[in-house]
Amino acid sequence: GLLVTIVMDSLRALWQGESLLSGLVDIVQPICKDPDACWEPTRVILFSIVFHATQFILFYVLCPLIPAYNRLAFKDKMYWVSSCVSTTHAVITTIGSFANVYGGECYTESLCFQRCEGGEFYVAFTLGYFFYDYSLMWIFFNVFWSPATFLHHFIAVVTGPITFLIDHCQYISVLFLITEASTPFVNFRWMMETAGLRRGRAYVINGLVMVVVFFVARIVLMTKFAIEFYTYFHEFNQASPIVKAFLGPSITAVYCLNTFWFTKMVRGAIKVLSESTASKAAKTQ
Q: In the Cβ-directed half-sphere of 91, how many Cα atoms lie within 13 Å?
């Protein structure tokens, strides 16, 4: 109810040319002591929802220009369009988050309590994407429903706003966004497979790159964070109770999901390489 009220009041304020926070102070005040600081990201979240929804419509119009797309069933067409939007979001988020974590002065003083405007933008931008994707999941329930995706998005939607409301552990949220680096390759693999390009060289190369990038971005990077978490445990231990309540279970759940997906990818890569080797051996004979 709170989210719906915030969105409706924000849209009304934008339509009337008012400040985005106009009309929201009374709602937010019991939760946040400084609404101007806490709810400024709502502007980015709303922009992100509209941005990704507009992309979906645009790709839905443009994708029929691709011959392979027109041969797909309706469900696969929707997945194709959704994958295009997902890829755009992943590229923007990965580059921006990486630049904030490793290319500037953000999070150099504290991993738990330092705040960075650039990092805050990409967290809010991604929350907007998840809200868009959730909406898509419910509108086309029979097409997009996936328990793993639902759990992944739920963790993000629940824990993401904590970085705005409580001002703790923004670094963790931004670091997790870098894991989106593997998403374009996952999407390309699925798109090429449905287009009938499974036996092509591009499919094999993309699959191998996908496994490597997924391993680096989602396994190695998360292991690095686990080491940092242990090293700076004294900082994280000073976080508020709500942060500590969500921190451990959320990180564990996401790490398990990534490990599960990585295992499936490795099995798929081994299968594709075996098929490719067998095909070459048959041709030489």
A: 10
Torsion angle in degrees (nearest 10) through CA of 189, 195, 198, 204: -40
Q: Are 146 and 112 in contact (CB under 8 A)?
A: no
Long-range contacts of 80-83 (CB under 8 A, 24+ apart): 80/191, 80/194, 81/56, 82/56, 82/133, 82/136, 82/144, 83/187, 83/190, 83/191
Cβ-in-10-Å burial (0-12, 13-18, 19+) of 123 comes to buried
Higher pLDDT, 169 or 142: 142
Residues 46/7, Cβ–Cβ less than 8 Å: yes
Please report how many Cα atoms fall inside a 13 Å half-sphere around the Cα of residue 126, on the Cβ side: 33
Dihedral of alpha carbons 195, 132, 88, 123, sign = negative
What are 164-218's pLDDT values in tens digits? 555 556 777 788 888 889 999 989 988 988 888 777 788 888 988 999 999 998 8
Q: Give pLDDT tens digits for 217-268.
A: 889 988 887 777 777 766 667 766 766 676 667 777 778 888 888 898 888 8
The DSSP code sequence of 225-265 is HHHHHHHTHHHHTTS-HHHHHHHHHHHHHHHHHHHHHHHHH
Q: For the chain, how far is it from start to end, CA to CA, in angstroms?
A: 67
